[in-house]
DNA sequence: CGCCAGGTTGATTTCGCTCAAGCAATGTGG
DNA sequence: CCACATTGCTTGAGCGAAATCAACCTGGCG
């Protein structure tokens, strides 16, 4: 096992990506898989013509591009960098070999996929059950989990790495509805928005509303044990 | 490899379940995984109190109960038999061992999970983009794929294994809307409903509407399918 | 016979989408 | 440096699909 991991360390390459850079494009042939070490990646799919829709977010600990590898198809989504990221690349052949020969690694990876599956089902559920307002809040909370800061003054602040359009897409609503919802949240004294700056004004009540304890999950019940720090349970 | 499979065959047990029987309940501790050999299983989740909602269908070839096993949690959904089924059970310890030591099996299993992931994402997409009518038709078609019969007379017939409530849940709509939709489909001469009997009157046009070829249909397309009509957003 | 769960139907309401206009910030070319 | 276009966001008005509320069937069963 040690030997394999050594060879893995030798064969993998880590690269720094800048914001806006494309890791792989939709329809592109799969060259291998990517493990995100830091940063934030958006998976997008174009629906009609030039329009492109943000589908999912992926962050540290997530592996992306595996679907294309394992189904032997071209990428169905594009991966684009939202905030500067360190991404480790594993070549197609090596990845295949690893899957076929290192069960422990495959098992660990399976956890990752399982997390994505849970996420997808959660999204589905949200869409059927929850109102637009609740979904927006969930998206904001999951973003806060990833990128938020608690200022010494006690304010909970978040710098959005997304346009309104993308944010709306994540919540599964139109940009107009998002805008209205945000204004409503302001009138409810729940949060305030200035450009891409979000400030949560009642985080306690918010977490309460979603029956979450502090710093535990949001929309994304990330079960992959490898994601960053928190969540030991 | 041969040896492992032999021991697998020795350790697994196959059991016949009758309609309505519970394979495992929500919140129950995971005892192992189940492979469906024949029949049909419904995965349900209770949303509030006594109310319980049908989430997914699982049929021959599907493995269920793995999520609880791999995340070391109790079952998040209940599995209930819809039509009499043959189900093969693999004990928790054995399953864990197999995952950890037989990469080929894990890889094969990974494909199964990948399929479920694609299914979940497809469901999500459907819900955002398609109308109630289209979703009902998709559910009916996927059921027809599993249980439908083409009578010698040429009629395409299907005996529903579900209540209206469950059918509506699958399509992500309320029972009332389902009822109205069905009546509308009848007035459109697309299908007719008598109790749990469904009769498709224009299967060709139907498959055409969803850009599907005959007998390769269903809600779950290979993920090249971003189906047909997508509203941009 | 009456009860009851499941199903249908009708009336009303609501939520979010579409269409359309207005506005601020950023480019762009003369 | 200024008119002008472009892009991203917000706001308003109207509309429509589906949810909700509520009454009413229907068939099975004690």
Describe it:
2 copies of one chain form a homodimer. Chain A is of the alpha+beta class and about 230 residues long. Chain A has helices at about 1-10, 65-70, 90-100, 105-130, 130-145, 165-170, 175-185, 205-210, and strands spanning about 15, 20-25, 30-45, 50-60, 65, 80-90, 150, 155-160, 190-195, 195-200. In chain A, strand 3 and strand 4 form a beta hairpin. In chain A, helix 5 crosses helix 6 and helix 6 packs across helix 7. The interface of A and B includes residues 45, 49, 51, 101 and 116 of A. Chain B binds a DNA duplex (30 and 30 nucleotides) through helix 7.
List low-confidence stretches of chain A: 215-233
Give the biggest sheet of chain A: 6 strands, antiparallel
Structural class of chain A: alpha+beta
Largest interface: A-B, 38 and 34 residues
Shape of chain A: elongated
Q: What percent strand of chain A? A: 25-35%
Oligomer: homodimer
Distance between the termini of chain A: 29 Å
- The count of β-strands of chain A is 10
The residue fraction in helices of chain A comes out at 40-55%
Count the DSSP helices of chain A. Answer: 8
Reading the helices and strands of chain A in chain order gives: HEEEEEHEHHHEEHHEEH
The mean pLDDT of chain A is 86
| Gyration radius of chain A, in Å | 19 Å
